[in-house]
Amino acid sequence: MAITFLTYAHKKFYVESDRMQRYDRMENIEKLPAHHYSNRGGVLIRKEFVGFEKYHKNNESLMRWYKQAYRQIFENEPEPTSTSTQH
C-alpha cells in the first residue's frame, strides 16, 4: 500500500509542478521577456536556463575558453603540443 501511495505522490508532484508553471506563465506572460520562451507551434514553452552556452568556431577555441573558465581543473595539465606536421 505504501509503494502505491509513493508512486502516486511522485507522479502527482510532476503534474502539479507543471500546472503551477502553466498558471505562472498565464498570469505573468506580459511581464516576462520574450527570450524566456520558445514558441513551438503556437505553444509557449518556458526555457530552463541551466548554464551559459558559448559557441566556438573550432575545438581549440573551445578548449581555450574551458581553460580560462575552469582554471582549477586544468592547472596541472600540460599544454598539448601541435600534432600537425608541415611538409
Could you give a short description of this structure?
The chain is mainly alpha-helical and 87 residues long. It has helices at residues 2-28, 59-69, 71-74, and strands at 37-40, 43-46.
Task: Summarize the structure in words.
The chain is flat, with a radius of gyration of 23 Å. A hairpin with a 2-residue loop joins β1 (37-40) and β2 (43-46). The protein has helices at residues 2-28, 59-69, 71-74; strands at residues 37-40, 43-46. The mean pLDDT is 78. It has one domain (2-74). The N and C termini lie far apart (74 Å). It has 87 residues and is mostly helical. The longest helix is centred in the N-terminal third of the chain and has 27 residues, at 2-28. It has three helices and two strands, in the order αββαα. 48% of the residues lie in helices and 9% in strands. A two-stranded antiparallel ribbon has the order 1-2.
Keywords:
flat, 2 strands, 87 residues, mainly alpha, two-stranded antiparallel sheet, 3 helices
Give the helix/strand class.
mainly alpha
Strand content: 5-15%
* Spatial order of strands in the largest sheet: 1-2
Number of strand segments:
2
**C-alpha Rg, in Å?**
23 Å
Per DSSP, the total helix count is 3
Q: List unreliable stretches of 5+ residues.
A: none
* Outline type: flat
Write the layout of secondary structure elements.
Layout lengths: L1 H27 L8 E4 L2 E4 L12 H11 L1 H4 L13
Antiparallel strand pairs: 1-2
